[in-house]
Amino acid sequence: MSDDFMLDTDDLQRRMDGAMGALKTEFASLRTGRASASMLEPVMVDAYGSRTPVNQIGTVNVPEPRMVTLNVWDKALVGPAEKAIRESGLGINPQLNGTIIMLPIPELNEERRRELGKVAGQYAESARVSVRNIRRDGMETLKKAKNDGLSEDEHKIWSDEVQDMTDKAIAAIDAALTTKQEEIMQV
């Protein structure tokens, strides 16, 4: 088996890149004192019997630098959308105006900046866990191959490659976290 065994490193890399992409999306949702339509992307609303992204139940606009509005298309979803935004951890207090939910972005004080830094850290840890789970999947595949006749040397080479991919992905996550935390703490 050792002659024809090929670990699908492209799949592992694609999955690790996906974890990094998800982290970047979550980081984009963390506000730094400026309004951004992307800050609502991770908010999920209980709509029509399933969890639906908030941008699929209404139109998200940024009419001014410190205001985001959500024009909800279905009147029945205004309450669930407001609740989802309030409970999302964004630190924004929604205000209703008919089917429009207004989200005034307050100035960030030092305490709120620290809180956002902690949230960024939680997002990064979640991405690290994802990468480690992908590493574990790769190692389990190698273990099965070893039991099926993969040589010790081949096993070591593939294990080192999977570990190298993991180390690079974790380093990229740490770098992104450091950058985001610096951005959050800037006044």
TrEMBL record:
CDD domains: RRF (cd00520)
GO process annotations (BP): cytoplasmic translational termination
Primary location class: cytoplasm
Domain Ribosome recycling factor intervals: 23-185
Localization terms from the record: Cytoplasm
Keyword terms: Cytoplasm, Protein biosynthesis
Cellular component GO terms, alphabetical: cytosol
GO molecular function, one term: ribosomal large subunit binding
UniProt-listed NCBIfam families: frr
Family according to the record: Belongs to the RRF family.
Task of the protein: Responsible for the release of ribosomes from messenger RNA at the termination of protein biosynthesis. May increase the efficiency of translation by recycling ribosomes from one round of translation to another.
PANTHER family xrefs: MITOCHONDRIAL RIBOSOME RECYCLING FACTOR PSEUDO 1, RIBOSOME RECYCLING FACTOR
HAMAP family linked to this entry: RRF
Protein name: Ribosome-recycling factor
Native species: Halocynthiibacter styelae
Phylogenetic placement of the source organism: Bacteria, Pseudomonadati, Pseudomonadota, Alphaproteobacteria, Rhodobacterales
Gene designation per UniProt: frr
